[in-house]
Design a protein that fits this description.
- This protein is mostly helical.
- Helix content is about 70%, strand content about 5%.
- A two-stranded antiparallel ribbon has the order 1-2.
- A hairpin with a 2-residue loop joins strand 1 and strand 2.
Amino acid sequence: MMQELNYIRCGDYFIPDIRLSKENRPIGRWGRIHRDYIKEHNPIRFNDLCLNGELWTYLADLNEQAQNRLELIIEQMKASEGVTEVIVRPIRERLHQKQKHQTQQRQNGKKNRDSWER
């Protein structure tokens, strides 16, 4: 898929007018995990997605698909095990608190690493 490439003149030079697509969807947990995976195990694919400006859209789509699949699996497991919302609510709250705690730890760890690098 070739796109027409436009140039902007800056003094005596012509610079390619390259713009990334406007993607506002978050890549989420599953997108970040997959980004790290393809970056390490399939760098050619990662570079191709980056250079074509498709990485963010690809990861956002993947995150949505994974999240939908996870919700479907959870619903199927709840139905097969006879789990009701009364049982699920406290578990969901504990998971949310755990995720929040892990996020804070990651942010604090990053701050500590940044201070060491200076």
